[in-house]
């Protein structure tokens, strides 16, 4: 094993040594833990141990792949503030989605008051969350929140598109049999059709 590979494996140990942080449900880990998990998935360093992502989650992190992916989705959808609030209030992702429009600039807005999202404000956050839970669901988030949500969706869509295009490009140059070529042609045609439909809808 080369020196660089040894360093990579040691780095994997640092990532996977945090398994206690993920032994609870997705909302119980910290934002730093969630970022650590996302970096592990994106860097694919677990492959240095001969593991798949699913195996790394189960054997080394101590959670199933679906929970790991949910933690990462929560980070990408809500940002770090969600994890602080979830830790101190026990709020679920669905509940947070309902009151998300009340979170701005690292503070929870309630009754005209801005409560900084920090562990030391746990009692105030819990009281405000309980009150917000009892309020009717808001029909529409403020424009600023919609813009932030749109930006997150753009980032996720663009990242997924780049990954998908790289895989289709790889398949294009593989020595596929007739069935494989037909499957590839069908898939590309379906994608092209959906993209054309999206283009039409955008122009309406």
Structure, explained:
This protein is mainly alpha-helical and 204 residues long. Helices cover 67% and strands 5% of the residues. Strands 1-2-3 form a three-stranded antiparallel sheet, covered by helices on one side. Strand 2 (107-110) and strand 3 (113-116) form a beta hairpin. The chain is flat. The relative contact order is 0.07. Mean pLDDT is 77; it is low at 1-7 and 23-27.
Keywords:
single chain; 204 residues; mainly alpha; 9 helices; 3 strands; 67% helix; disordered N terminus
Instruction: Find the structural class using helix and strand composition.
Output: mainly alpha
Q: Biggest sheet: strands side by side, in what order?
A: 1-2-3
Terminal CA distance = 58 Å
Please give the radius of gyration in angstroms: 21 Å
Q: How many extended strands?
A: 3
What letter string, H or E per element, gives the SSE order? Answer: HHHHHHEEEHHH
Overall mean confidence score, pLDDT: 77
Give the % helix.
Answer: 55-70%
Poorly predicted parts: 1-7, 23-27
- Number of helix segments? 9
Report the sheet-strand fraction. under 5%
Question: What can be said about the biggest beta sheet?
Answer: 3 strands, antiparallel
**Which overall shape is indicated by the principal axes computed on the Cα atoms?**
flat
Describe the structure concisely for a colleague.
67% of the residues lie in helices and 5% in strands. The protein has helices spanning 3-16, 31-43, 53-61, 65-78, 80-89, 93-99, 122-134, 143-172, 178-203; strands spanning 103-104, 107-110, 113-116.
Helix and strand arrangement:
Layout: H1 3-16, H2 31-43, H3 53-61, H4 65-78, H5 80-89, H6 93-99, E1 103-104, E2 107-110, E3 113-116, H7 122-134, H8 143-172, H9 178-203
Antiparallel strand pairs: 1-2, 2-3
Helix pairs in contact: 2-4
